[in-house]
Design brief:
Layout lengths: L4 H9 L3 E3 L2 E2 L12 E3 L18 E4 L3 E6 L16 H8 L23 E7 L2 H12 L4 E9 L6 E5 L3 E2 L7 E2 L9 E9 L3 E8 L6 H8 L24 E9 L6 E5 L4 H9 L10
Parallel strand pairs: 6-13
Antiparallel strand pairs: 1-2, 1-3, 4-5, 5-6, 7-12, 7-13, 8-11, 9-10, 11-12, 13-14
């Protein structure tokens, strides 16, 4: 049975792994002759129910699914969101997804914020989950986002390097001034400048919570529609933050072949661009 690194660590912390009959911490170095015993608990019965929610599937085989998540859909169950999530939809779509990667987040390798649209990759086996999670952790996945930000971004291309951590007062927010921030880097290029907005292509090199939203706010160009980080605008109306996970490039978890997935710009962002006369609201390619 394939078990991910994070699940191994939890088994050790829970005292379910012993070395020569005694518990050891996760940093223990195994020696020749050690007898290791592992007790893998039975899968916990899931409380999350399958729901027949339409999915925009871009690619699927027996190992993974790549799909285009709509804005407004929560990725996995959480307090206040026990139904209508991507996980609920996936459990209906896949008969054997339960338990992969954790009870409440079966198959979820990475996540998007509720009001961010675009590409999500889901593992369908434990082995695929372990491999894909490793690719994301080791920054081997190329991620490309599209965003519409307030104001005119001065440089045609740039990099925001600023650690991201939990805001010291507002617990729902992240901040670049947190004492416990973790390194984060986002590259960007300007596709088009409007009178008081900029259409951007972004390449996050790390995967911190709210990273792109926080980084753009930190350079005084919050994403239009992002009420949490200052993107609310009387001039420019968007019902949600104008942020879209446009492209993912990674290795197939079993065949090791190169995979490239693309989710087209959603209607609300395309309509915004068209309303200001920018082409057909495409991605600038």
């Amino acid at each position: 049975m394939e078990i991910s690194r994070s699940r191994w660590k939890k088994l050790i912390v829970d005292g379910r792994v012993t070395v020569n009959g005694a518990e050891q911490n996760a940093g223990y170095k195994v020696r020749a002759g050690d007898q290791i015993t592992v007790q893998v608990p039975a899968a916990t019965t899931m409380k999350t129910s399958p729901q027949a929610i339409p999915l925009q599937i871009i690619f699927e085989d027996e190992h993974l699914i790549a799909l285009d998540k709509t804005a407004g859909m929560v990725t996995h169950p959480a307090p206040g969101h026990s139904a209508g999530t991507l996980v609920n939809a996936l459990l209906h779509h896949c008969d054997d997804l339960s338990g992969i990667g954790g009870v409440e987040r079966p198959g979820i390798v990475h996540r998007l914020d509720k009001d961010t649209s675009g590409l999500v990759v889901v593992a369908k086996t434990e082995a695929a989950h372990k491999n894909l999670a490793g690719q994301f952790k080791n920054r081997e996945v190329r991620k490309e986002y599209l965003a519409i930000a307030t104001g005119n971004v001065k440089e045609d291309k740039g990099v925001v390097r600023a650690a991201v951590g939990r805001h010291k007062v507002h617990r729902k927010k992240m901040d670049t001034k947190s004492r416990n921030g973790r390194d984060a880097q986002t590259e960007y290029e300007v596709l088009h400048r409007g009178e008081s907005w900029s259409y951007l292509r972004l390449f996050p090199k790390t995967g911190r919570t709210h990273q792109i939203r926080v980084h753009l706010a930190s350079i005084h160009h919050p994403i239009i529609g992002d009420k949490l980080y200052g993107g609310k605008s009387a001039q420019h109306k968007m019902a949600r933050q104008a942020l879209h996970a446009h492209r993912l490039e990674l290795k197939h978890p079993v065949t090791d072949s190169n995979l490239s997935f693309c989710a087209p710009l959603p209607a609300d962002m395309a309509d915004f661009l068209r309303s200001y006369g920018y082409g057909d609201g495409d991605d600038g390619r």
